[in-house]
Each structure stands twice: as structure tokens, then as C-alpha cells.
Design a protein that fits this description.
The protein is mainly alpha-helical. It has a two-stranded antiparallel sheet. Helix 1 packs antiparallel against helix 4 (112-137). It has five helices and two strands.
Length: 176
């Protein structure tokens, strides 16, 4: 089967189930933003050699694919997203305890690994904003929306914690 179907040549794409919408539809923007985040997380993952971090980032990519499928119209197992959220929260708690107390804003620099994690974090935040916009513009709100937003919010927190952990030196912004 060829990847080239030519069905999108008119500026439309198919949602899960076959409904066609414009490629700039807010729903497509929402799951497309998660696709970007997933790709940047994959880029960040490639800078790590330790299996634990690589596996964590790979698990996150899988979690995001489930959410992308939901945003494109597929069913979502909310219990699985809750489990994924718990996994993210435990990952944050495990790593946060070894870091110094945060007393200032941190500049997104320090090492290539750190920079990649910060880029992934900001892309996740951008995706979160697009998904909030999509959710707010839907005709009806469903309970899965809340858990997805909680997951994305925690995910950006985790990426920030990882960036701090792997930073060769944490550069704090000077007070203005």
C-alpha cells in the first residue's frame, strides 16, 4: 500500500472513522500539535544512553499516540490515561527529590540533552494550548478532556524536571 493516496491534495484530511475535514481544522491542529511534541520527544530521547530515560520517553510517545488517536475521533480508554498520568506523576516524584530547591526561573540551556528536553517541553505546552482551544470549541465537553489536560500539564512538568536533572549546570535568570 502506498503512502501517497492523493486524497489530501484538496487540503482535506480524514479523521478516525473517515470524516474529511480541512487540514487547518482546529481538531487537526490539536492532534497535529501532539504529533510535533511526540517527534521532539523522540529527538530528545536519542541524546540519552541510559535505558531508564530512553524507556520513559518512549512510553510517553506511546501515551501521546493514544491521545492523538482520541483527538482524531477514536475511542479512549480513560482508565489507561489515568494509569499513564499516575506513571508520569511517579516519575516526577522520583526525580524531583534529588534536585535542589527551585528558587528562580531557569534558562533553557546547559547541555544538548537539556536543550532538547526544553524544546520538547515547550512543544508540549504549545500542544496543550491548542488542545484547550479545541476542547473549548467542541459542542460538548467529555470527562476524558480533563484527564488529557492533566496528563499534558504533568508531562511538561516532567520534561522540565528531566531537563534540570541532566543539565550540566543550571543557569538561573538574574533578578531584574
Amino acid at each position: 500500500m502506498s503512502i501517497t493516496t492523493k486524497t489530501g491534495d484538496d487540503g482535506t484530511t480524514a479523521l478516525f472513522g473517515g470524516t474529511r475535514v480541512k487540514k487547518n481544522d482546529i481538531q487537526v491542529e490539536a492532534y497535529g500539535a501532539l504529533d510535533e511534541a511526540t517527534s521532539f520527544i523522540g529527538l530528545a530521547q536519542e541524546s540519552f544512553s541510559d535505558k531508564k530515560t530512553k524507556d520513559l520517553l518512549s512510553d510517553i510517545q506511546f501515551h501521546l499516540y493514544l491521545i492523538m488517536a482520541y483527538l482524531s475521533g477514536a475511542k479512549l480508554d480513560a482508565k489507561q490515561v489515568v494509569n499513564n498520568l499516575t506513571y508520569i506523576e511517579k516519575s516526577i516524584q522520583q526525580r524531583e527529590t534529588i534536585l535542589p530547591k527551585l528558587i528562580r526561573f531557569v534558562l533553557p540551556q546547559g547541555s544538548e540533552q537539556t536543550a532538547r528536553l526544553h524544546v520538547a517541553r515547550t512543544i508540549v505546552r504549545s500542544a496543550e494550548r491548542r488542545i484547550v482551544q479545541y476542547i473549548n470549541n467542541k459542542n460538548k465537553k467529555v470527562k476524558n478532556d480533563d484527564i488529557i489536560l492533566r496528563y499534558l500539564n504533568r508531562l511538561s512538568d516532567l520534561l522540565f524536571i528531566l531537563a534540570r536533572k541532566y543539565s550540566k549546570q543550571e543557569v538561573a535568570m538574574k533578578e531584574v
